[in-house]
Write the C-alpha cells for this entry.
Amino acid sequence: MVFGIGEGKIDIIPEKQSYAFGEAIGGKVVLQLSQPKKANGSRIRFYGLIKTQHSDRDMHGHRHTHASTREVLAQSFQLAEEGDFPAGTKEYPFTIKLPTIPKDGNAGSGGFLSGIAGILGATQDPLLNAEWYLDASLDLPMSFDISKKLRLNLIR
C-alpha cells in the first residue's frame, strides 16, 4: 500500500464514555495490521481543547473577531516501543489518571486552573467548556500514521 493507506486500523475502546476529574480512564487500544510493519512505536494521548473567541475594534472602528484553540492537560503514554509489529490484531490496555480539580470549580481560586484562566483571559473555570479527547496512533516511518481520535465526556 502507498503511504500507509489501507495498512491497517486502530481503535480506542474505553471502559465507559463519561469520566470525572480525579478518576482513571481505562480501556484498550486495538491495532489491526494487514501485513507486518516496522514502526516507531504506538502511543495514546489524553488532552482537552479550549476554544476562545474575542473581538476588538481597529482605529477605524471596524470590529475584528479572533478565535483560538489551546490544548490543555495533555498527557501522552507509550503503548509499544519501536520495533516490528506483526500482521493481525493486538490489544494494548491503558490507564490514564485524570487530574483533580477544585470542588468549587472556580478557576479564580488559585493554582493550576487560575493559571489557565489567566492565559485565556477567563474569569470562570476554562475547563467547563473544554472538549476532551483520546488519540491513539501507530507511528509509521515515511508514511501516514494509523490513528484514531475519540471524544470523551468529562463531568464534575
Observations:
- The first helix runs from residue 111 to 120.
- Strands lie at 8-14, 18-20, 24-33, 37-39, 42-57, 63-80, 83-85, 88-97, 131-138, 146-155.
- The CA atoms of residues 10 and 31 lie 4 Å apart.
- The helical segments are 111-120.
